[in-house]
């Protein structure tokens, strides 16, 4: 049985050139490419429609519809027509009601939940009669369009942006801005911070190493062998560190450790030491020790309360922890101490470099003004 010859279409020379250009262009959308292939193929009576259907993955009806569209509208037929889309089932007022519900506390509608989820919002919105029916995926879309995220939260602390805070923070930033100048004057800037209560943890089963298709696996159960207080001193000029382990995180043990940590810097005319306002740092015993032993040679600069992020030694400890403490497995407390002592020179050899600190006193003032004005 002979097949009926397909009805050919006439494609102008200009349209043919444009179709060829689209087919050569690797950035053309694939649905546009398929439609262009159909139009180029349907110019010839030798084209077998069934074979063309398999090639471009379209039905005979789809090919026929495309050809009719081209005859009516020209090359615009190969592009998607503008569509209004399915009418919204949730009205604007209902959307606003869902947004208002998401911004309210669950206790306001008699619930004991602490926060909302898309599923709970959808269920309560229907129970409260805000909408007749809504899916949690629709609620998610409504919240996304309104830039609302009731499922997320974060902590914050009210900054004390008074003159005392600004003055104390400015002293720290003054040192950071003048590290090179201080070095030229034979003065050195240091930063000190502790990592208290580092646990000497031993896994109850051997760690399973990485292999193809499986990441490293650690036994969940473990045995504690005590804790170690790790003290780190950062040289702000070259990024190298000195460290020691303390039996206790108090003034007595801190004062015993400081002479050994500061010993390599005795050739400098002055030392600027930055640390936070921890109890062992600001105690009367520590202040008395520093004044009697070092006098004006050691200038201590303390960060404001809740502003330990101004201390570059805290950044150092975070970097050190990632490389030398995470995934650790220590059979005893002494094993952990030996590991920390051996890790310090390795860190200096492999990773030590000055921290690129760019936040200045001017930035501090601008940030404080924005905070006071409620702009950030």
Notes on the protein architecture:
It is a single chain. The protein has 376 residues and is of the alpha/beta class. It folds into 3 domains: 13-78, no CATH class; 92-145; 163-207 and 219-370, Ribonuclease H-like superfamily/Ribonuclease H (Nucleotidyltransferase, domain 5, 2-Layer Sandwich). Helix content is 45%, strand content 13%. The chain has 15 helices and 5 strands. A 5-stranded mixed β-sheet has the order 3-2-1-4-5. A hairpin with a 5-residue loop joins strand 2 (222-235) and strand 3. 21% of the residues are buried. The mean pLDDT is 92.
Give a nutshell description of this structure.
With 376 residues, the chain is of the alpha/beta class. It has helices at residues 13-24, 30-41, 49-56, 60-73, 92-102, 118-127, 136-145, 163-177, 179-184, 251-262, 279-282, 284-293, 312-324, 333-350, 361-373; strands at residues 187-203, 222-235, 241-246, 270-275, 298-302.
């Amino acid at each position: 049985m002979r097949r009926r010859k397909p009805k050919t279409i006439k494609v102008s020379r200009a349209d043919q050139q444009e179709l060829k250009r689209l087919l050569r262009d690797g950035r053309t959308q694939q649905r546009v490419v398929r439609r262009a292939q159909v139009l180029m193929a349907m110019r010839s009576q030798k084209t077998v429609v069934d074979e063309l259907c398999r090639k471009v993955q379209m039905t005979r009806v789809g090919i026929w519809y495309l050809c009719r569209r081209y005859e009516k509208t020209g090359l615009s037929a190969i592009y998607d027509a503008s569509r209004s889309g399915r009418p919204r089932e949730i009205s604007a007022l209902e959307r606003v009601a869902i947004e208002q519900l998401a911004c309210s506390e669950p206790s306001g509608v008699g619930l004991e939940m602490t926060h909302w989820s898309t599923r709970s919002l959808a269920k309560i919105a229907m129970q409260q009669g805000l909408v007749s029916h809504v899916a949690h995926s629709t609620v998610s879309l409504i919240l996304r369009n309104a830039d609302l995220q009731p499922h997320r939260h974060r902590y914050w602390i009210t900054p004390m942006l008074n003159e005392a805070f600004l003055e104390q923070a400015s002293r720290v930033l003054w040192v950071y801005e003048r590290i090179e100048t201080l070095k030229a004057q034979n003065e050195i800037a240091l930063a000190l911070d502790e990592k208290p209560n580092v646990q000497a943890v031993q896994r109850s089963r051997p760690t399973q190493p990485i292999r193809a298709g499986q990441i490293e696996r650690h036994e969940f159960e473990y045995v504690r062998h005590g804790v170690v207080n790790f003290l780190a001193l950062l040289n702000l000029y070259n990024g190298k560190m000195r460290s020691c382990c303390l039996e206790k995180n108090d003034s007595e043990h801190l004062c015993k450790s400081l002479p050994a940590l500061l010993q390599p810097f005795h050739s400098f005319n002055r030392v600027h030491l930055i640390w936070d306002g921890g109890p062992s740092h600001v105690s009367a015993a520590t202040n008395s020790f520093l004044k009697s032993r070092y006098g004006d040679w050691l200038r201590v600069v303390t960060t404001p309360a809740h502003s330990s992020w101004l201390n570059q030694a805290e950044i150092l400890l975070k970097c050190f922890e990632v490389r030398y403490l995470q995934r650790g497995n220590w059979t005893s407390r002494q094993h952990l101490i030996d590991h920390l002592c051996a890790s310090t020179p390795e860190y200096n050899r492999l990773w030590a470099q000055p921290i690129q600190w760019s936040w200045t006193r001017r930035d501090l003032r601008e940030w404080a003004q924005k905070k006071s004005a409620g702009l950030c």
